[in-house]
Amino acid sequence: EKQLSAVSLCISATSGTFVITNEQGEPIADAAMYNDGRATSVLGRAEKIIAQANQPGPFLLANTPEFVISYLSSTPLAQIATDSSHSLKIGVDLENISYSPAALSTAQALNIKLPKLELPGSKLATLSKEIADQLGLDQIPIYAGMTDGCTAQISAAGANGSVTSLGTTMVIKAVSIKNISGPAFYSHLLPRDRYLAGGASNIGGISYKEFASDIDNWNQKATQFGVANMVCYPLPAIGERFPFLSTQMPKLESNLASGEVERYRAILEAIAFTEKYAYDLLEQAGASISSQIFTVGGGGKSNLLSQIRATVMNKQVVIMAKSGSDIGAAMLAYASHNAQDNDLAKALSDINIAQTNHFTPQDDERAELARNYQSFLELTAKYKG
User: Fold this and answer.
1) Band of pLDDT at residue 353, cut at 50, 70 and 90
2) CB within 10 Å: which end of the chain, N or C, has fewer?
3) Can you give the CATH number for the domain in which 106 is found?
4) What tens digit of pLDDT does each residue of 14-25 get?
5) Is the domain of 163 the same as that of 98?
6) For residue range 130-148, what is the model confidence (pLDDT) as tens digits?
7) Nearest 5°: CA angle at 198, between 195 and 199?
8) Is there a domain that residue 295 lies in?
């Protein structure tokens, strides 16, 4: 077997997960997760934590990577910088790589010292000798990473392609040469000159979970049934994030299905319609949508869904062999170590990524699916931004 050795590492974690500590780096409370319900913003949650802790400060705010890197490098937490990706939800101006005036003002009022900002790919620390010896590694450099959503995209398409992650929910990411945002999406900077733009929908695998135990049988029946005579928006609960932003959006159906097979088929079509609409939104905002849609996650295992998606979007759908945030983080660490002038996008483009299946648009269902897509747009029109 080929012997491999680690040359660098970076940390990839959820966006918006952080911990508040004292100046010595000791937590004053448990970490706040990205979906913490105490407030809708990072600093809003920090305010709740500080009020409950009843301590005077000053405080440090550390995203997951800083806390981990501090331990791995035996460096005081206050000396560890953060990356612009994990800190984006604090409030970051990506043009100047600085915190927004509003974020700085709020942090000052709360007596919080925000970590220094660095770009992904910047060297932040070195693995301590103690940890290196424990792991059997050299004292390798630790680079600034990106959030798990970004590293998942990187694992599938490097720095060039559009990626759909079909798991419990559907996450859609595209590449842009400019910083774009909208009511339901935003961008992460991938140095030097690329932006990873997109958002996450509440529909996805969860929308057809009742069919999952016998999915192959349902796929066969839905293939034989053909295009549905109804359209739907299969939300599992009230509220949507992307491509529609509405806390009140419910599950929608144009009419009742003739049976369970048609209902299942309509759900698969709805996922494809939502994906197309999302990519159209990103393209209108300035993103470049690749001719191939790279796909990761369990949803890529359904050949029927992949075929419907290819026909609806009129693009080739590519299923990746191996992908995930862990693989993307490793790719990012490697690119950071080898990039010239911190051009991560170029370094990532030099990495080969394995693919498995390819699906191309089918002419026999194109017209009927186009008809249903127009009905889908009418069904969801009330909830467009």
Assistant:
1) confident
2) N
3) 3.30.420.40
4) 989 999 999 999
5) no
6) 999 999 999 999 999 999 8
7) 145
8) yes
The answer to whether 55 touches 112, Cβ cutoff 8 Å, is no
Q: 61: domain range?
A: 9-143
Distance CA(200)–CA(308), nearest Å, equals 20
276-289 burial, b at 16+ Cβ within 10 Å, e below that, comes to bbbbebbeebbbeb
For residue 133, the tally of other CB atoms under 10 A from its CB is 11
pLDDT tens-place string over residues 182-234: 988 999 999 999 999 999 899 999 999 999 999 999 999 999 999 999 999 99
290 within a domain of the structure (yes/no): yes
Cβ distance 315 to 209 under 8 Å? no
Number of H helices and E strands in the chain, helices first, is 12, 19
In contact, 303 and 359? CB cutoff 8 Å: yes
Mean pLDDT across the chain, nearest whole number? 95
Residues 191 and 316 in one domain: yes
Is the pLDDT assigned to residue 1 strictly greater than 80?
no
Last-in-domain residue among 103, 122, 143: 143
Q: Are residues 135 and 183 in the same domain?
A: no
Tens digit of each residue's pLDDT (9 = 90 or more) over 103-128: 999 999 999 999 999 999 999 999 99
Among candidate residues 150, 121, 123, the one with its CA nearest the CA of residue 139: 123
Amino acid in the structure at residue 91: G
What are the structure tokens assigned to 287, written together? 């993103």
Would you give the distance in Å from CA 242 to the centre of its chain? 12
Length of the chain in residues, anyone?
385
Average pLDDT over residues 354-372: 95
- Contact (CB, 8 A) for 161 and 154: no
Residues 132 and 176 in one domain: no
Q: Are residues 216 and 154 in the same domain?
A: yes
Q: Are 263 and 348 found together in one domain?
A: yes
Closest CA to 279 of 161, 362, 159: 161
Token pair in block for residue 158? 């490097």
Residues 125 and 188 in one domain: no
In angstroms, the CA 296 to CA 324 distance is 8
Do 202 and 127 fall into the same domain?
A: no
What number is the average pLDDT over the span 172-181?
93
Number of domains observed in the structure of the chain: 2
Phi, psi of 119 (to 5 degrees): -80, 150
Is 0.90 topped by the overall pTM? no
Whether residue 1 lies inside any domain: the answer is no
